[in-house]
Structure formats: C-alpha cells, structure tokens
UniProtKB/TrEMBL annotation:
Keywords: Isomerase
Keyword Metal-binding included in the entry's annotation: no
Domain Alanine racemase N-terminal: 20-168
Molecular function terms, GO-annotated: alanine racemase activity
Known EC number: 5.1.1.1
Enzyme class: isomerase
Transmembrane segments: none
Entry keyword Transferase: no
Domain of life of the native organism: Bacteria
Entry protein name: Alanine racemase
InterPro entries: Ala_racemase/Decarboxylase_C, Ala_racemase_N, PLP-binding_barrel
C-alpha cells in the first residue's frame, strides 16, 4: 500500500565498502532527505562503515550534513565529527546549535567577517574555510582568504582545512582546483587539507601526485549511497482498478475517458514528491498535430507518469493526488491486480518514500 524503496542490502553494503575503500579520507554526505533513505539511516550506516575500517582500510572520522537542523538526526547515530555544509552565519539555526553537540561540529565559514564573529562567540570552534568556485554559491575569494589568514595568524586555531564545491559534469576540474589550491598556498593559511566535491577518481589521483603535501578529502553523497542503481528499486502498490468505457467520467475534474480501458489507482502522489513528467519530446505544433492525427492519449491531454507496468511507462489519467495517482491503461494492455507492485522512476533526492526496505 506504499511507495517503497527496496534496497538489495548485500549489494548496497558491498558498494558502500568498495566506495570507501577507493576514496581514502572520504566524507560521506548525509543531507536533505538522505538521498531517499533519510539522514538518520545514512548516519547509522556511516557508523557501520566507520566500524568496518579494518575492511576498508580507511578511518571514517567525519560525515557531512547539509544544515544545522540536520545535526541532531545524525549526531545520535554517528559518533564522529559532523561537517555542516551550509555556511555559518551570525543568525538563525547556526546560533541554535545544541551546546552539547557543538564540540562535534565542524563549521563551514565562507566570509571573513563570519570567521571573526564565530571565533568571538566560540573560541574553540572548528571550521573549514570555503573557497568561491565557478559555482558562485558560497565562498571566499583569494583576497578573502588572505584576510582570513591574517585573522588566524600562524598559531593554533580551529582551522581544519579549506573546502571547494565544484560544478557537476564539467570536462575537467583540475585547472580550477589547481588555481584554488595555489590561492590557498599564496594566502599563507596554515592548512594543507582540502575538502572537495564532484571529482572523479582519476582527478583525485592526479591531485594526489601533483600536490603530495596536500590531503584531498572527497565529500561524496550520490555516488556513495546511490552509486549502484542496480541495488535499488522503487515500487508503488496498485490500490484499485476501474474499468471505463469511452465517455465515462472520473477524477477530481470530472474528465471523461477517451476510450475503453482501465483507471489504475496506485500509491504515491504529490506528498511523496511524485510530479508530472516533462511532456514527451517534440512539442511543436506540427508534432502535436501528428499525435492528434494518430489519436494518441497524449493528444487528449494525458501526461506521462513515472509509473511503469510491464516495463511500459503509463500516462497519468489526471495530475497526481496527495497520496495516490490515477493512471490510464488503454484496453489491450495487461491490467495489474489490486495489491500488485509496479515500478516507479523517481528522483531519489526529491522523493519521500513511505517505506525503505533493506533486505
Ligand atoms: C551535496 C553536496 C555534496 C555531495 O554531492 P553529491 O553530488 O551528492 O555527491 C558535496 N559538497 C557539497 C557542498 C554539497 O552541498
């Protein structure tokens, strides 16, 4: 009766171990909806990975969470340090951090003035300094880094490294990373640790040889938790099936069936993050005229859904409801039974599953 994420546990766990083994210094990222698995579950699994350091050969001393609001969920299940990816600011959730957890947190600081403020409030605070990258999300410019270096001086401080968040899918990050590392050296900051995202194994290896005095620590979420898609499947339960003739009305909007077929009601709706799919392919007038001529269901306004029956993606009979969706299955196709599970294609980072089964 649920939208369910099914995990082949053995296959998933061996992928996790393999990924950690291949990335010494890895910082697993457990944020947001936990990539579909929840932050709590990922934090527990990160602790399991830390406990398997003998297998992986890699100590796992830190995980990353997205926000200060996620710290509590992770902290009670994972015993190591918690790097917060959202930069510290002198307001809001950062200031509400539970004092008992503060010593386990590593802050991200992205503005020179925040560095001064944070250290005034918490002289013992540990932090990484984020560098501005071509993403232009958060971070310090070269000049900001020099200002931060002046603030910190050469003595002991909570500085744990610098962090850079790089765009996805660029041909190579190496040029940009080299420039950023050179900025770290030029700034005089007393650190040789760099936290990075979205570098390939080959890029990480290249950096290790180019900058042997630096420790490069990859922050990895997607490729760790979701890296072996074959270990994951998503299913929805068929809750009801209604045969309709052409002209029969159904749904919130009382629309009428364009031809004989079945309305199939399945679990999973807007509350789970199930949305309308982008219209199929070519939406030019000419293409639409051709579809109309063929009498396709998309011509009568049915939109592609992420639900599939027997490998065929089905159309929504109307937009998804809060906890359920209505599909239209034209006559000729096999009609699934009530209680049967069908496949769903989702974006894991934007889906709230009713259940996660790790077999
Ligand atoms: C989300 C995030 C990551 C992890 O990204 P994935 O693509 O899931 O590996 C790394 N660094 C930062 C700053 C992030 O926000």
């Amino acid at each position: 009766m649920s939208l369910t994420l099914n995990v082949d546990g053995e296959r998933w766990r061996s992928h996790l171990l393999r990924t950690v083994r291949a990335h010494p210094g890895i910082v697993p990222v457990a944020k947001g909806n936990g990539y579909g698995l929840s932050v709590a579950r990922l934090a527990r699994r990160a602790q399991w990975l830390a406990d398997h350091a003998d297998d992986t050969g890699a100590a796992l001393d830190t995980i990353a969470v997205g926000t200060y609001d996620e710290v509590g969920d992770a902290a009670s299940r994972y015993a190591g340090d918690l790097l917060v990816l959202t930069p510290w600011r002198p307001f809001g959730a950062a200031l509400d951090l539970d004092a008992r957890l503060a010593s386990r947190v590593v802050h991200t600081v992205s503005r020179p003035e925040d560095l001064v403020d944070l250290r005034e409030r918490h002289p013992e605070a540990r932090f990484v300094l984020e560098q501005l990258t071509s993403m232009l999300r958060h971070g310090m410019t070269r000049r900001d880094l020099a200002a931060a270096a002046a603030t910190l001086g050469s003595g002991r401080s909570g500085l744990r490294g610098v962090a850079m968040h790089l765009p996805l899918n660029t041909t190579s990050h190496l040029g940009e990373v080299s420039r950023l590392i050179n900025d770290v050296v030029a700034s005089g900051l007393p650190t040789r640790t760099v936290f990075v995202s979205h570098l390939t194994e080959a890029e990480l290896a290249r950096l290790a040889t180019t900058y042997p005095d630096f420790t490069v620590r990859p922050r990895i979420g997607t490729d760790l938790w979701l890296g072996d898609r074959g270990a994951l499947s998503v299913t929805a339960t068929v809750l009801d099936v209604h045969e309709v003739e052409r002209g029969d009305t159904f749904g919130y909007r009382g629309r009428s069936a364009p031809k004989h077929g079945h309305i199939v009601v399945v679990s999973g709706g807007t509350a789970h993050g199930i949305g309308l799919e982008a219209p199929t392919g070519d939406q030019s007038l000419k293409a639409r005229a051709a579809t109309l001529a063929r009498g396709g269901l998309d011509a009568v306004g049915f939109v592609r859904s992420p639900f599939s029956i027997d490998g065929k993606q089905r159309l929504f009979a109307e937009p998804p409801h809060m906890q359920a969706s209505m599909l239209f299955v034209p006559s000729g196709a096999r009609v699934p039974c009530v209680g049967e599970d069908i496949e769903v294609r989702v974006r894991f980072t934007a889906t709230d599953f009713d259940r996660v089964f790790i077999a």
